[in-house]
Amino acid sequence: MGTFSADWISLIVVGFGTLFLIGELLVNMRGVFGLLGVGFITLYFLTYLDPSMFVLMMVIYFIGILLIIIDGKIINDGTLATIGAVCMILSVGLSSPNWTAGLYAIIGVLLGGGSSLAFLRVFKHRKLWSKLTLVDQLTDENGYSTVKDTHRDLLGQKGITITDMRPVGTIRVNEQEYSAVSSGQWIAKQTEVKVTHVDGTKILVSKIN
């Protein structure tokens, strides 16, 4: 019973650590979430590892965080973010004393990372993610007068993806090609989609089920 309790704690500690660290990347909390996240993750690694392995696994975990930042800031196709998530999962999984605790820790990374998206509904977004969340408002009211009327007319129309969307890609609507963003989904090319939102020159689409 005691082992089970210790294993379960891995889920809680890693979950909160990842929740606050990813949350710090998503919203502007002036480092508060970052400090909480580092505290939880440090506690997890210190509990199970000797000093040399502690440093190694901490480095791997934070390399994962760094790759997510680079993806959000520069690339925006999800590739580095996926590799970063794998680094985080491997670091906590390999640091656990047994497979049960490792599984709980991996679930903690997934749940913490997913749950951190809820912060976007409450706190101010970081500009880091503006390309994916359509934070920038390219509207006439904000001084953008170069918006094409054809983009506004796309709202509600159906089209097809002509490249993979991860989540940025190219779609074709009425024989015209446009750069678009999916609503957090990876959509394969030649998939039927619908334009759900137009924000200036940015087009948001979702897959038609």
Largest sheet: 5 strands, mixed, barrel
Average pLDDT over all residues = 82
Number of strands: 5
The domain tally reads 2
Describe the structure.
- The chain has 209 residues and is α+β, with helices and mostly antiparallel strands.
- The chain has two domains: 2-127, no CATH class; 140-207, OB fold (Dihydrolipoamide Acetyltransferase, E2P), CATH 2.40.50.
- Helix content is 53%, strand content 15%.
- It is built from seven helices and five strands; from the N terminus they run H-H-H-H-H-H-H-E-E-E-E-E.
- It has helices spanning 2-26, 32-48, 51-75, 79-95, 99-115, 130-133, 149-153, and strands at residues 158-161, 168-173, 176-182, 192-199, 202-207.
- It is elongated, with a radius of gyration of 20 Å.
- The termini are far apart.
- Mean pLDDT is 82; it is low at 1-5 and 130-147.
Annotate the secondary structure layout.
Blueprint: H1 2-26, H2 32-48, H3 51-75, H4 79-95, H5 99-115, H6 130-133, H7 149-153, E1 158-161, E2 168-173, E3 176-182, E4 192-199, E5 202-207
Parallel strand pairs: 3-5
Antiparallel strand pairs: 1-2, 1-4, 2-3, 4-5
Features:
single chain; about 210 residues; OB fold (Dihydrolipoamide Acetyltransferase, E2P); 2 domains; five-stranded mixed β-barrel; 7 helices; 5 strands
